Amino acid sequence: MAFDAKSFLATLTELPGVYRMLGADGGVLYVGKAKNLKKRVASYFRENLPSPRIAHMVSQIAAIETTATRTEAEALLLENNLIKSLAPRYNILFRDDKSYPYIVLSHGPYPRLGFFRGNPDRKADYYGPYPSGWAVRDSIQLLQKMFRLRTCEDTVFANRSRPCLLYQIKRCSGPCVDLIAPEDYAADVQLAAMFLAGKQQEVTRRLNQAMEAASARLAFELAAIYRDQIQSLHQVQEKQFVSSNKGEDVDIVVALKEGGQLCVNLAMVRGGRHLGDRPLFPSNAGESTAADAIAAFIRQHYAVHPAPARLLVSPLPKEEEEADGAATLAAELAALAGRPVPIQEGRTLTQKAWIEMALQNARLAILARNQATAQQEQRLAALQEELQLAEPIARIECFDISHTMGEKAVASCVVYDGNRMKKSDYRRFNIRDITPGDDYAAMRQAVARRYDGVANGEGVAPDLILIDGGKGQVAAAWAALADLGLSHLNMIGVAKGEERKPGLESLIFPEADGRPPLNLPSDHPALHLIQEVRDEAHRFAITGHRAQRAKARKTSTLESLPGVGPARRKALVARFGGIAGVLAASVEQLAEVPGISRDMAEKIHSALH
């Protein structure tokens, strides 16, 4: 039945909130927020819609669900959460969930300058966010040079008996061994905080005053330190390619649609210093315009990240009935930030230069992405040709086994899909119930566990399976597929060449295939793709194995003893000094420990010997 928009609109409230448009299958088509739910939802059912994309979406609506909120800011936060969790088909989606790094200044008598990634709290002062870890570390190095603040962890700081190398190279003032008075260190911390807040001119003024005062009282060594700080500050300011004398915090958000790609580029300016940018490619962009992408990015990004003093955008979204205009977005940001956040185009020469640079970087990101895609498609086509496959290859899954002398064997399965490694589909398998060191049995178990669901009609089958190994591993993997009724899936093994040198690998076909091993030239694009996927499987397997082995090393033998809990373990260690002493103890000696009966002592002795 067609959706009865008129009857539904009659029931809607005029409160702010979020609406979810559902298709006939119950799937969410679109999530939006509204200052007035009734007016906003009604705008989708007028005669002239702004784009064919919206018209096509409206034609598929079977139901609409709404959630009223107290404020528009709450609606914006809820909208962002629903878009991220539901990934609706018609919402432009930015998967930029990585936490942005900050510079942190801890509290206390001698605050620590450091790198921080996570959710800021009130236990320290945080400056940022920054677009990359590199930008944070570069800024920390500059601050060390200018203000000589400590960067060591508190545990190291509390246990120093002499200054470290950073003091020797004049990157720290040595507060750990009282080589600077607390009040002088506090003054340096204050200057560093002012510098991070963009008040470089005030910092320079104070340093000049301190240098003149030191010279007046003939403290020339101290005056020289201030002089060096001033020179370092000037050098930092001169190094900036594009800078602002105002010391402002600005985000530059530009969107560009070229070469079949839609890219949103975020550049950050903190304290007047341009800190680099980050290009983002949204999902579900479809026929969306650059202005649509700008609006979607602002709503999603600043719902979870702090907003700067102002935003410079290009193109500037226009005010329309779709409620994506600059004034509307600015009002939403103000509600989230608790202060006005202007959204405007570049006006000054510096602002225009920032926008032009961000657009140029977006253009370069699109070019690089398209070139990488073309290269991957070339590799896939070459691999299909060499393996003589009838159908194109889109999804590749690769298996590898990692263990140390049979201990804690771990199998990895990595996935190449959509011209890239798809980490969300990676899997690890802790191998169990096999003879330690039996790689063939481990491979058979991993393949069987991975494709058991596929055999039952669940999950996605790959176009090609890669096995890191030779004939034995391939035979074991093929046997697992045959048991599941999936022997029709394409499979090859990647056997290491002479002296395990890259480029000398042999591609091993299952025995049922009947083809001899295939050796591709070392510069063949298909071999490069195989090596890339195989190396990723190897890395993922080793990482998992090392984690398992480290966990085992941290587990005491006493923890595995039946009936021995934390209290008894503590008593045994206190009595015998550790596991070596417990191993050397007799049953009678074990029974003397408080809480250990004769029967329990015999069980412990038997379990350990």
List its traits.
seven-stranded mixed beta sheet; 609 residues; 44% helix; 18% strand; single chain; five-stranded mixed beta sheet
Write structural notes for this entry.
This protein is α+β, with helices and mostly antiparallel strands and 609 residues long. 44% of the residues lie in helices and 18% in strands. The chain has 20 helices and 18 strands. The protein has helices spanning 5-10, 37-42, 52-59, 72-86, 133-147, 154-158, 165-168, 182-196, 200-216, 220-239, 290-301, 326-337, 349-387, 439-455, 471-484, 525-554, 566-576, 579-584, 587-591, 598-608; strands at residues 17-22, 28-34, 63-68, 101-106, 113-117, 124-127, 250-258, 261-270, 273-280, 310-314, 343-344, 395-404, 407-417, 420-421, 427-430, 464-468, 491-495, 506-508. A hairpin with a 2-residue loop joins strand 8 and strand 9. Helix 8 runs antiparallel to helix 9.
Question: What count of helical segments does DSSP give?
Answer: 20
Mean pLDDT: 84
The radius of gyration over CA amounts to 32 Å
What is the oligomer described by this structure?
single chain
Shape: globular
Tell me how many strands there are.
18
Strand coverage percent:
15-25%
Structural class: alpha+beta
Sketch the major β-sheet: 7 strands, mixed
What distance separates the N and C termini? Answer: 75 Å
Helix fraction by DSSP (H/I, runs of at least 4): 40-55%
Could you name the ranges where pLDDT drops below 50 across 5 or more consecutive residues?
237-245
